[in-house]
């Protein structure tokens, strides 16, 4: 595949990068992602297909998910490692698949240290992580030196497996990062104390790896430039380490942002795009080897801006390549409007991995299922009616049309998107605009007939003679049985997000699932002149990031700073369950949603019984004690009910039920779950 940048809108992104002994085809790096396939039976065959799809799509350099150099460093008891000669064969499947294209691929060497989720973990000191139940043992000097040898041997095995290089993971709070920071490193020997001692392990590993693999082998070091935790490094410490990394023989330095235990969001959808590229730009003044910027770079336009402004030499994008394997190819062809953009939701990628499930992607369910969920051309092209232009209906329509079927979509709304049209209005969820843009473009490209503002009836659908009818009519808010539920104070989330009905200053929200949190954020942040996601500096300050880097870990001293602006509204978020409010939210994002509401002064109450709604407000009971919340409005966000009227009507018509299908929220309405809806739609489209 050749890269022609002369007529491209992205000349910097698509320009080759000369590393001296080898040249990368362009400036895109597919960042490391653990997929879960590493541990599955037959997983390396699936991994090979996964990485090959991205190589075919034009990415310049791939970095694999983290692989441990020894048993102690595994992320989980059965985690993947590369430490024995017989491990080489399965890795060769990956490199052979990728090298059918001009793409280079590096193996990431990751020792988890105290993040290892097993009782045999060790770390620089016996200091337990707040996100791990296991307390590590302190490493002996012999174990330290053995770990250096293990990294070097693992790198040699990677070279034998056909990898073009390795990335040594020195950030995100893993072992080498643990050694480099006093937060975890309490040692008093030559491996602790001053920064030169704390960084010694990382530097010795780089030297040992370089000696083992030779000069013509890519060696990336993932350097934590912002620890974002108490006890993190100062900027002077980071610079000292970066210069030592360069001198020790690294080819590239990749930017690492934040420890996993940091209480500052770094990659979720509410984080402004390219929010942390300023720190890579700052480091460019200190070292001469190429630097890679990372975190929330999800479009070619943003990537080009980062590179053209001189903030970095390459850009790392991980999840954007989950969302669209052809990201680079589409950029080459000036078709960025056809890219299925990563929305930073974490729901099918990070949430899955942290729950020991295979990763995938909400907007692209084929990610990590390249050999299982495929869309071969249909043997018989059918006319298919799809009722509902929400996530399920849209996804089915696109995948089915790609197989050659003739699709017509019907929706009584005036625009496509369904529930996404409400989600995109919530501060921090603006990326949903991109998904709707993607589907609109696909509808045009695939010649899908779109009937908006159209009520499809069972009779008209049957009379039209479609071969198949797919019902994706979605959900409606569930009605509650509470005394006074018909009171004028009562609204539901559609009244707020869809119909923009005026809401008073004192509000009670019934239901603390995803919708309840969304409505709470929407109402709480109405005081913002523009969404924080559009103002990097204000967003960074609101989360306590010190761009001047005056303190270790780049954390602001909030006690000395200005307090965050809080909503002028008095908001109560209520749930019946006695568990922590928001406990059912995403594993990697729930804490962010709770912190956002807490920072806005929202009161979150659990174990609530709802007694009545009247002119006085909402009467509730907690632990047997009743109280009246004097509120202007009560907003119901307590679940949904499937809209199945049309489906049942079609079932009753003789013959119609033969080609009838039900998907999305219309089939299961337990919670607004676009991930499930889109996967379900894709699975039906693959076989219909």
Write a concise keyword list for the protein shown above.
688 residues, alpha/beta, TIM Barrel, Rossmann fold, FAD/NAD(P)-binding domain, 3 domains, eight-stranded parallel barrel, five-stranded parallel beta sheet, 27 strands, 17% strand, globular
CATH architecture of the largest domain: Alpha-Beta Barrel
From the spread of the alpha carbons, the general shape counts as globular
Q: Structural class, please?
A: alpha/beta
Major β-sheet annotation? 8 strands, parallel, barrel
Task: Explain this structure.
The protein is an alpha/beta fold and 688 residues long. It folds into three domains: 17-353, TIM Barrel, CATH 3.20.20; 383-476 and 641-687, NAD(P)-binding Rossmann-like Domain (Rossmann fold), CATH 3.40.50; 479-528 and 565-638, 3-Layer(bba) Sandwich (FAD/NAD(P)-binding domain), CATH 3.50.50.60. It is built from 22 helices and 27 strands. The strands form seven sheets. It has an eight-stranded parallel barrel with strand order 3-4-5-8-9-10-11-12, surrounded by six helices. Strand 3 (28-30), helix 1 and strand 4 form a beta-alpha-beta unit. Helix 1 (43-56) packs parallel to helix 2, helix 3 (141-160) runs parallel beside helix 6 and helix 13 packs parallel to helix 22. The chain is globular. The two termini are 34 Å apart. Keywords: Flavoprotein, FMN, Iron, Iron-sulfur, Metal-binding, Oxidoreductase. One of its GO terms (biological process) is fatty acid beta-oxidation, unsaturated, even number, reductase/isomerase pathway. Residues 13-337 form the NADH:flavin oxidoreductase/NADH oxidase N-terminal domain. Pfam families: Oxidored_FMN, Pyr_redox_2. Its cofactor is FMN; [4Fe-4S] cluster.
């Amino acid at each position: 595949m050749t890269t022609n940048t002369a007529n491209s809108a992205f000349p910097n992104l698509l320009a080759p990068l000369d590393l001296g002994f080898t040249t990368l085809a362009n400036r895109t790096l597919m960042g490391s992602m653990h997929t879960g396939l590493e541990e599955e039976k037959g997983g390396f065959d699936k991994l090979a297909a996964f990485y090959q799809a991205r190589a075919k799509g034009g990415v310049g350099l791939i970095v694999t998910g983290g692989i441990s150099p020894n048993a102690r460093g595994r992320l989980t008891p059965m985690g993947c490692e590369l430490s024995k000669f017989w491990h080489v064969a399965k890795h060769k499947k990956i490199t052979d698949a990728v090298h059918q294209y001009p793409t280079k691929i590096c193996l990431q060497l990751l020792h988890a240290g105290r993040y290892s989720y097993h009782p045999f973990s060790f770390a620089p000191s016996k200091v337990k992580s707040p996100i791990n139940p296991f307390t590590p043992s302190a490493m002996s000097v012999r174990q330290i030196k053995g770990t250096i040898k293990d990294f070097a041997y693992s790198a040699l095995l990677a070279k034998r497996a056909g990898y073009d290089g390795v990335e040594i993971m020195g950030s995100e709070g893993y072992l080498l990062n643990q050694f480099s920071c006093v937060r975890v490193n309490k040692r008093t020997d030559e491996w602790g104390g001053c920064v030169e001692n704390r960084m010694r392990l990382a530097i010795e590993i780089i030297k040992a790896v370089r000696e083992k693999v030779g000069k013509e082998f890519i060696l990336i070091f993932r350097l934590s430039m912002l620890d974002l935790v108490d006890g993190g490094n100062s900027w002077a410490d980071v610079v000292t380490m970066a210069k030592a990394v360069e001198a020790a023989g690294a080819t590239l330095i990749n930017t690492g942002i934040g420890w996993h235990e940091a209480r500052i969001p770094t990659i979720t959808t509410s984080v402004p795009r390219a929010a942390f590229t300023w720190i890579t730009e700052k480091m460019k003044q200190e070292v001469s080897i190429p630097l890679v910027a990372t975190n929330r770079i999800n479009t070619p336009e943003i990537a080009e801006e980062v590179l053209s402004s001189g903030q970095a030499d390459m850009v790392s994008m991980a999840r954007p390549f989950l969302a669209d394997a052809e990201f680079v190819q589409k950029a080459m062809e000036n078709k960025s409007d056809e890219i299925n953009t990563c929305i930073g939701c974490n729901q099918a990628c990070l949430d899955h991995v942290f729950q020991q499930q295979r990763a995938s992607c909400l907007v692209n369910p084929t990610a990590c299922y390249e050999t299982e969920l495929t869309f071969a051309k249909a043997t018989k092209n059918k006319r298919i009616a799809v009722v509902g232009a929400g996530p399920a209906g849209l996804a089915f329509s696109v995948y089915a049309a790609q197989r050659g079927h003739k699709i017509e979509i019907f929706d009584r709304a005036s625009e496509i998107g369904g529930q996404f049209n409400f989600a995109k209005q919530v501060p921090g969820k603006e990326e949903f605009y991109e998904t709707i843009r993607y589907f609109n473009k696909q509808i045009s490209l695939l010649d899908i007939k779109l009937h908006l503002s159209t009520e499809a009836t069972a009779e008209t659908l049957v009379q039209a003679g479609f071969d198949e009818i797919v019902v994706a009519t979605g959900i409606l808010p569930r009605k509650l049985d509470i005394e006074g539920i018909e009171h004028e104070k009562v609204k539901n989330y559609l009244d707020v997000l869809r119909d923009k009905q005026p809401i008073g200053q004192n509000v009670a929200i019934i239901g603390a699932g995803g919708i309840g949190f969304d409505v709470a954020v929407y109402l709480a942040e109405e005081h913002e002149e523009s969404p924080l996601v559009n103002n990097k500096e204000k967003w960074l300050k609101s989360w306590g990031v010190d761009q001047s880097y005056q303190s270790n870990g780049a954390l602001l001293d909030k006690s000395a700073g200005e307090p965050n602006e809080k909503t002028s509204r008095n908001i109560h978020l209520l749930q019946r369950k006695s568990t922590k409010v928001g406990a059912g939210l995403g594993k990697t994002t729930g804490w962010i949603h709770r912190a956002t509401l807490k920072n806005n002064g929202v009161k979150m109450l659990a174990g609530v019984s709802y007694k009545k709604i009247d002119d006085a407000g909402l009467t509730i009971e907690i632990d047997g004690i009743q109280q009246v919340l004097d509120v202007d409005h009560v907003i119901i966000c307590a679940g949904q009910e499937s809209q199945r009227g049309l489906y049942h009507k079609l079932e009753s018509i003789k013959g119609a039920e033969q080609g009838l299908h039900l998907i999305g929220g219309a089939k299961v309405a337990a919670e607004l779950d676009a991930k499930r809806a889109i996967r379900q739609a894709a699975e039906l489209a693959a076989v219909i």
